[in-house]
Design goal:
By secondary structure, this protein is α+β, with helices and mostly antiparallel strands. It contains 3 helices and 6 strands; from the N terminus they run ββαββββαα.
Length: about 110
């Protein structure tokens, strides 16, 4: 079973024994987590959701918000595959509390010149 771990920004990981550990890490990082399902679409074994997440960081009480698109494939009542997508650049800016757009654009321009 594959599962995206969008809270750690570490790509795709294998679910299983590590899942409770990741959930515990999320609870340690965020004092509150709220999820609002904006869209839920089901077509046979395929499920798609769009969610609005609102997370309050435990260490500085800052609230970060993101929209997440998730896609599931089910088999036998279980999740066979899970993929999640979100704007990681925006999420990092919110975590840091600063706008990185100009610095990032300058880095891209410099890389294109070389």
């Amino acid at each position: 079973m594959r599962r995206s771990n969008y809270f750690r920004i570490s790509g795709t990981s294998t679910a299983g024994a590590g899942s409770p550990r990741r959930s515990g890490a999320q609870q340690n990082r965020y004092s509150s987590r709220k999820y609002e399902i904006k869209l839920l679409s089901v077509d046979g074994a395929k499920v798609a959701t769009i969610q609005h997440l609102r997370l309050r960081k435990r260490n500085d009480d800052r609230v970060v918000q993101l929209e997440v698109a998730e896609f599931f494939t089910l088999r036998g009542g279980r999740i066979l595959e899970h993929r999640g997508f979100f704007d990681s650049f925006d999420f990092v800016q919110q975590l840091l509390g600063q706008d990185l757009t100009d610095a990032f654009a300058a880095s891209v321009r410099n890389a294109m010149r070389g």
